[in-house]
Amino acid sequence: MRILLINVPHPAIGSRIPREQLPPLGLLAVGGPLIDEGHEVTLLDGELGPMAIEDLVEATVRHAPDAVLFGHSGSSSGHPIIADVARRIHARLPKAAIIYGGVHPTYFWREILAAEPWVHVIVRGEGEETARRLIAALVRGEDLAAIPGLAFRRGGGPFATPAAPVIQTLDDYRVGWELIDHRRYSYWGGKRAVVIQFSRGCPHLCNYCGQRGFWTRWRHRDPEKLADEIAWLHREHGVEVFNFADENPSAGRRPWLAFLKAIIARNLDITLVGSTRAGDIVRDRNELHLYKQAGFERFLMGMETTDEPTLKLIRKGAAPSVDREAIRLLRQHGILSMATWVAGFDEQTDRDFWQGLRQLIDYDPDQVQLLYVTPHRWTPYYRLAENREVIQPDLTRWDYKHQILSMKRMPAWRVFLWVKIMEVTCQVRPRALRRLMWRRDAKIRHATRWYYRMGRRVWFHEILSFVFRDRRVLDGRTVRDHMGAVQDHEEEASAVVPRAVRRQSEAGLTRLIGG
């Protein structure tokens, strides 16, 4: 089968920074097994450029695929763009099967299938094995109901098969690296880069995060095999930077240390960048030299808040003293720390922001990233926030960088002002500027200066967007109402499609699968 994987352009500023674009790991992970099954697979990456929607559709029509597969790491914020592109492609290529996978469609399959007749099948959960079986069934004309992890239309309405079992051995499915031109992807200041994954899932119960719900239990790749893959990418394709997609790759101490030792044994001059928990850094205090020797230059640690009651509310399972110690230990071993701090919790006040700023300065991380709490349906936090008012109705802004929820005691403009003040204060205080101007380690010096260049660009971009572009509406709709409103809006959009086309969508899938 002739298959086209599409990565749509995303409105995030990352898509507009020249020479700082990472490849779409999720689509490559699905593409590898399909290539191995003998299918003709191509990736069309709309993020490169980024491509205009019209150009993306025209390129798809020229390719004339039998099946189009969509997925996006932006998840909910990428959905409106995927819906628009899929609708346009279906109008031009009505015989092509349109398949959609990822976190957002996994949890919104009913709404999407009810409102978007151009989407034929949704892959729910992990995609490698489910997509492989789906394409095989389409080729042979078999009934899709026998394949776990799918959703499609049956009997005039949305229908889902049972959930697919989790992949037990991640190394059974390879990443389709041949789908990309490595020269077109870079990060960390113009260095050739890719995204990799050591593990999936997380053993912790933080209620604002969907890792545990989507990936279920924590699993990891074979340390030696992943080290071999990294060495091959570095030596054969010149990849210098490896950005870990894992939320918590160090959750399993024994396999994680085995991986670090495997990388060291291969004697690679590479840069590793990842996320972890502060507690894991403190746990491995006697092995942090292995982190440095393997090539780690920065860890992002989700501290979320410095307020103890809020930490308990979100079930973070962390303590400020541990966060502070993790930052100190990383600096001691020449590894940069990035601390995240989340705004938008309902009870926050000016005093909380002031206290948060003081504590961030006391923590003394090398970099900070301020985010906004976002009530995605697949997180337990959704239930806590479902009755709060939504002030950002544009789903493309549900990217953790825009305020979504109203707050009881603070208007949006003041929350935004505090966020910008906290960001600039943490990064231009004297101690931070001294580190910017002088670093003994050349690679860390490069990383620090690159971060400041990108940070300055993003900081001003977000201010201009807040003032001139973002639409904030306080109309009394709650999170629960808004999820329904999104569905209603999509149904209004689908109303412009003739009823015969909506009937043809199910009939077309029936023709494709012979069921």
Itemize the secondary structure elements and their pairings:
Layout: E1 2-7, H1 25-36, E2 40-45, H2 53-63, E3 67-70, H3 79-92, E4 97-101, H4 103-107, H5 109-115, E5 121-123, H6 128-140, E6 150-154, E7 157-160, E8 186-187, E9 191-196, E10 199-200, H7 211-215, E11 219-220, H8 223-237, E12 241-244, H9 253-265, E13 271-276, H10 278-283, H11 288-294, E14 296-304, H12 308-313, H13 320-332, E15 336-343, H14 350-363, E16 367-372, H15 381-385, H16 412-428, H17 430-437, H18 442-468, H19 479-494, H20 499-513
Parallel strand pairs: 1-2, 1-3, 3-4, 4-5, 9-12, 12-13, 13-14, 14-15, 15-16
Antiparallel strand pairs: 5-6, 6-7, 8-9, 10-11
Helix pairs in contact: 1-6, 2-3, 5-19, 8-9, 9-11, 14-16, 16-18
Spatial arrangement of strands, main beta sheet = 2-1-3-4-5-6-7
Major β-sheet profile: 7 strands, mixed
Q: Give the structural class.
A: alpha/beta
- Compute the CA-based radius of gyration: 23 Å
Number of beta strands = 16
The helix content, as a percent range, equals: 40-55%
Query: Which geometry do the CA atoms define?
Result: globular
User: Gap between N and C termini, in Å?
Assistant: 19 Å
The stretches of 5 or more residues where confidence is low (pLDDT under 50) are 488-502
Please indicate the percent range of residues in DSSP E strands (runs of 2 or more). 15-25%
Number of DSSP helical runs: 20
Mean pLDDT value = 88
